[in-house]
Amino acid sequence: MNIRTSYEDISPYITKDGSSIKELMHPEVHGNSAQSLAEATVPAGNTTILHRHEITEEIYHILSGSGVLSLDGKMIDVKEGDSVCILPGTTHKIKNTGQKDLRILCCCSPAYSHDDTEILD
């Protein structure tokens, strides 16, 4: 069975870290089994809340914009086309340092869960 979503049909919501998320594919909504795929948007000048996931590994792929990603306190500049793996237990937040929305493709395995998101700020 193939599962398909359409971007324009997906309504955004705010996650625990404060970013606006469009859940492109998630087991609880779409019926896939082991991972989730979402687009996060961080407006210019904004920063997500410092947090970590105990069991979830995340991959951030920067679709557009630029920012500074904090990983366990280490600052990494990111821009369109960059990808970063965030291992379970790693504290992280991202600041949009550009003039337009920072758009991030977020791949999570296992799938994103509010219960696996520990806010640290």
Features:
121 residues; mainly beta; Jelly Rolls; six-stranded antiparallel sheet; three-stranded antiparallel sheet; 11 strands; 48% strand; globular
Describe, in plain words, how this protein is organized in 3D.
The radius of gyration is 14 Å and the shape is globular. The longest helix has 4 residues. With 121 residues, the protein is mainly beta. The protein has one domain: Jelly Rolls. The strands form three sheets. Strands 1-2-3-10-5-8 form a six-stranded antiparallel β-sheet.
The CATH superfamily bears the name Jelly Rolls
**CATH fold descriptor:** Jelly Rolls
Q: Based on helices, strands and strand pairing, what is the structural class?
A: mainly beta
Instruction: Please state the average pLDDT score.
Output: 94
Largest sheet: 6 strands, antiparallel
Element-by-element helix/strand order: EEHEEEEEEEEE
Q: Compute the gyration radius: what is it?
A: 14 Å
Distance between the amino and carboxyl termini:
42 Å
How many domains? The number is 1
CATH class: Mainly Beta
What order do the strands of the largest sheet run in, or round the barrel if closed? Answer: 1-2-3-10-5-8
The portion of residues forming beta strands comes to: over 45%
Q: Can you tell me the residue ranges where pLDDT is under 50 for at least 5 consecutive residues? A: none
Tell me the overall shape: globular
**Number of E strands:** 11
Percentage of residues in helical conformation = under 10%
How many helices? The count is: 1
CATH architecture title: Sandwich
